[in-house]
Amino acid sequence: MPDMTKIDKNNQTEAATKASGDHKSIPGVTWNEDGSATIDLKQRINVSGEKKASIRMNYPSVTFMRENNEQIKTLDGENDAIAELCGIAPEETGQIGWPDYLRVQRVFSYFLGGDAPNWQMQSSASAS
């Protein structure tokens, strides 16, 4: 049986997030001012011989999308694209636990959709 207290708490958190209008808030993700996102990992991964508790994903460029558009339609292609945006080897992303990877995918999908919260334009009063 699932732990109903966890489910209820998750539903309350999700409802509060939606009510606040901050639907892009993902637990364990920091949306950086430079346009990147830092994703905390529950399980550390080994990157170039160093244990990492987080990875930083850069936003894709138009050139990146042009070169990778077809390949990101498969899990292997998506994995390679995510690895490139995070500056790690595709083999290293294989160490990411599935729950962590699902969060990584959400960040990636926000970047692909152009609606990552750190890329939202703020409206400003126009000068008359």
TrEMBL record:
Chain spans, region Disordered: 1-33
The scientific name of the source species is: Thalassospira marina
Question: Which residue stretches does the UniProt record annotate as biased composition, category Basic and acidic residues?
Answer: 1-11
This protein's source sits in the domain of life called Bacteria
This chain's protein is named: Phage tail assembly protein
